[in-house]
């Protein structure tokens, strides 16, 4: 059991950690810090923690585990602010969707004697804010840890046990590998979803109304994630630029091949690809049913609906 857990940022992910940790008895005291007083009031009204403050330095005082749960672009400033107040022996972690950048901007501020173990739960929804979280968000999902070389194995073990207590399966990998894998499985899909909704929105008004009225379930399934938090996703694309551009380049190359097949009426090329992708998609789902599947392998419809007023 963690004596004191400090969560910096209390949106979808922070509030899900708070609820899950409380339910599983993983932390004795939970301190919650957010930048805005209104968000803190919401967290207090939901009873998510024991200590509430808009001062992150105050929240981390005496904490054994500190988890940054705000958008990745805020991490550097927060790290600078809390660094002098971290308890020797404490574990500093995060939940950011990008890992290389986090290691680069947070790592240098971590004082000697504090264990820095970055993390990323591969679980979420398109909803945001303290009311959107739920205790079993992380159940049967992966949590990736990217401890820098030489990190104290005991600290990695403690954090790993914490995530397992929330129901996750834990795996360690390098930040660079994480960022490349997540670029194609999560970041580019979000970019494509944002883009297609933008394309629809730019259509002439009468066509747009028809799209909205008649949008088939394919469009609805495909674009669910286009409702995701704009600031969080802005930060993902600003901080995982190289991996996203690498994967986007490949994606666009393959899309051009498809475009040509459509233009020249190459039915064989289309059918061959669609046959291959159907098998791949089905094997992803089958694998996900045997072991805990990362987000991208689960049907969109199975995300637990957010509580009322969470958007
Ligand atoms: N949304 C998702 O499905 C997932 C998100 N993540 C990562 O989790 C982190 C948080 O995302 P969500 O909980 O979805 O976002 P959210 O928008 O629901 O919550 C973010 C929280 O951070 C606070 N915040 C914003 N700027 C801050 C600052 N400068 N200082 C202190 N607090 C600040 C907000 O008030 C809010 O409480 C992000 O880094 C994201 O990359 C990881 C896995 C899944
Ligand atoms: O809503 C969904 O399906 C997601 O893909 C959620 C998500 C968003 C960001 C992450 O880093 C991990 C998971």
Blueprint of the fold:
Blueprint (H helix, E strand, L loop, with lengths): L1 E7 L3 H13 L2 E7 L3 H9 L5 E3 L2 H5 L4 E4 L6 H8 L8 E4 L5 H7 L8 E2 L2 E3 L20 E4 L7 H13 L3 E4 L2 H27 L3 H10 L2 H7 L6 H10 L1 H24 L2 H24 L21
Parallel strand pairs: 1-2, 1-4, 2-3, 4-5, 5-6, 8-9
Antiparallel strand pairs: 7-8
This protein binds 1,4-dihydronicotinamide adenine dinucleotide and 3-(4-hydroxy-phenyl)pyruvic acid.
The site of 3-(4-hydroxy-phenyl)pyruvic acid (ENO) has 9 residues, from loops.
Could you explain how this protein is built, in words?
This protein is of the alpha/beta class and 311 residues long. The protein folds into two domains: 2-173, Rossmann fold; 177-302, 6-phosphogluconate dehydrogenase C-terminal like domain (6-phosphogluconate dehydrogenase C-terminal fold, Orthogonal Bundle). Helix content is 50%, strand content 12%. The protein has helices at 12-24, 37-45, 56-60, 75-82, 100-106, 153-165, 175-201, 205-214, 217-223, 230-239, 241-264, 267-290; strands spanning 2-8, 27-33, 51-53, 65-68, 91-94, 115-116, 119-121, 142-145, 169-172. The protein has a six-stranded parallel sheet with strand order 3-2-1-4-5-6. It has a three-stranded mixed sheet with strand order 7-8-9, covered by helices on one side. Helix 7 (175-201) packs across helix 11. It starts with a strand and ends in a 21-residue tail after the last helix. GO terms for molecular function: NAD+ binding; prephenate dehydrogenase (NAD+) activity; prephenate dehydrogenase (NADP+) activity. Pathway: Amino-acid biosynthesis; L-tyrosine biosynthesis; (4-hydroxyphenyl)pyruvate from prephenate (NAD(+) route): step 1/1. This is prephenate dehydrogenase.
């Amino acid at each position: 059991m963690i004596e004191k857990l400090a969560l910096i940022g209390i949106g979808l992910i922070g509030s899900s950690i708070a609820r899950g940790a409380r339910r599983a008895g993983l932390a004795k005291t939970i301190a919650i810090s957010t930048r805005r007083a209104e968000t803190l009031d919401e967290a207090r009204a939901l009873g998510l923690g024991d200590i509430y403050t808009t001062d992150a330095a105050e929240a981390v005082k005496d904490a054994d585990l500190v988890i940054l749960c705000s958008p990745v672009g805020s991490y550097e400033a927060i790290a600078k602010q809390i660094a002098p107040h971290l308890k020797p022996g404490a574990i500093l972690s995060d939940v950011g969707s990008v890992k290389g950048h986090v290691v680069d901007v947070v790592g240098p501020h971590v004082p000697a004697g504090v264990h820095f173990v970055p993390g990323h739960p591969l679980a979420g929804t398109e909803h945001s804010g303290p009311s959107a979280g739920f205790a079993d968000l992380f159940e049967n999902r992966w949590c990736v840890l990217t401890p820098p070389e030489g990190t104290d194995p005991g600290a990695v073990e403690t954090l790993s046990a914490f995530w397992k207590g929330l129901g996750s399966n834990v795996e360690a990998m390098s930040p660079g590998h994480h960022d490349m894998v997540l670029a194609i499985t999560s970041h580019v899909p979000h970019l494509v979803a944002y883009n297609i909704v933008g394309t629809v929105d730019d259509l002439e008004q009468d066509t747009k109304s028809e799209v909205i009225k008649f949008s088939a379930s394919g469009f609805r399934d495909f674009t669910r994630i286009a409702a995701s938090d704009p600031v969080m996703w802005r930060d993902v694309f600003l901080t995982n630029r190289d991996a996203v551009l690498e994967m986007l380049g490949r994606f666009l190359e393959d899309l051009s091949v498809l475009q040509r097949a459509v233009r020249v009426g190459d039915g064989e090329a289309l059918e061959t690809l669609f046959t291959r992708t159907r098998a791949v998609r089905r094997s992803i789902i089958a694998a996900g049913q045997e072991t805990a599947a990362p987000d991208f392998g689960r049907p969109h419809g199975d995300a637990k609906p957010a509580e009322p007023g969470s958007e």
